[in-house]
Amino acid sequence: MTDDSELRGEYEHAADSLGELAPQDYALEHGYDPSTGDRYRKVLNSFYADWHRPETLARSKSIRRDACLRAKRERGVPVAPICRELGLNVGNVNAWLKNGDMSKVSLENATRLAHAFRAA
Hints:
With 120 residues, this protein is mainly alpha-helical. The chain is 72% helix and 0% strand. It contains 7 helices and no strands.
């Protein structure tokens, strides 16, 4: 399809840059490669971000969990009143805090909890 296209040279350059790797594998291993040109940067970075979203989300929740646990330990902040104030299930919040079960709290609620624990 690109034989007569002005983009043929650009496609060939991109294919040469990727080597034997499929584009998604290249993105996973290397992230954005400046030699592929700015057109591809956004696509490769988006793919890379989406692919690693679960790990990034868990890491973000873990940081907020550590902040909550630190405030709880240092100032003796109780969990139940904060959960009532925020309208959250105490059991889910305790499973997140005590066991590190990241599925029990959304990132939004983890952020709300971290702010509430710091403010208490």
